[in-house]
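# step 3/5: fold
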Amino acid sequence: MTGGWVYIMTNRPNGTLYVGVTADLPRRIWEHRQGAADGFTKKYGLKRLVYAEPHDTIEGAIQREKNIKHWPRKWKVRLVLDANPDWNDLYDQLI
């Protein structure tokens, strides 16, 4: 098995948050930005990658994603602020 990523998308600073998991972060974020798949991120226009966390295994990433999804919003915002206080779009750093 390969590694994985947990990531957070938003539409603007302090906006709607989406927590996801993937094995191929650049491809997945490109899909979100292009609106390639119907779903939550397309519905709310979430195209800004504001947090990404690498994991050695996809299983570890999946477990972390599940944990973060159950957190209160305040904790998720703090996670983003600690790593990316200006809510910069990190997508360009991936490609």
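# step 4/5: annotate
The chain has one domain: 4-94.
# step 5/5: archive (pending)
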